[in-house]
Design a protein that fits this description.
By secondary structure, the protein is an all-alpha fold. The protein contains four helices and no strands.
Length: 91
């Protein structure tokens, strides 16, 4: 097989619908990973904000604060499990 045939095969692969689908999937995965990292940062910032608010403002009852922290912990655990490589790859 000469170089011309190899190049023709490569071009046919690059121009195929399957390759376009693969590129779309890779793009979606990259966006999802970026969104997940952004979500992780947002959860961390929310925890910091809640900790700072708790010290300066007692508008919520102890029970309300416990419910808020429990919900935040559940969101954080979900985000962490989604970010876990084993979860993503299905291992």
């Amino acid at each position: 097989m000469d170089t011309k045939d190899i190049n023709a095969d490569a071009y046919s692969i690059l121009e195929s619908e399957e390759f376009d689908t693969l590129l779309d999937a890779v793009e979606l995965m990259a966006k999802a990973q970026g969104n997940l990292l952004s979500l992780q940062r947002s959860v961390e910032e929310l925890k910091i904000m809640m900790d700072n608010t708790e010290l300066s403002n007692d508008d919520f009852s102890l029970q309300d604060n416990a419910v808020l922290y429990d919900a935040l912990d559940k969101v954080e655990n979900l985000v962490d499990s989604l970010a876990n490589d084993d979860y993503i790859t299905g291992k």
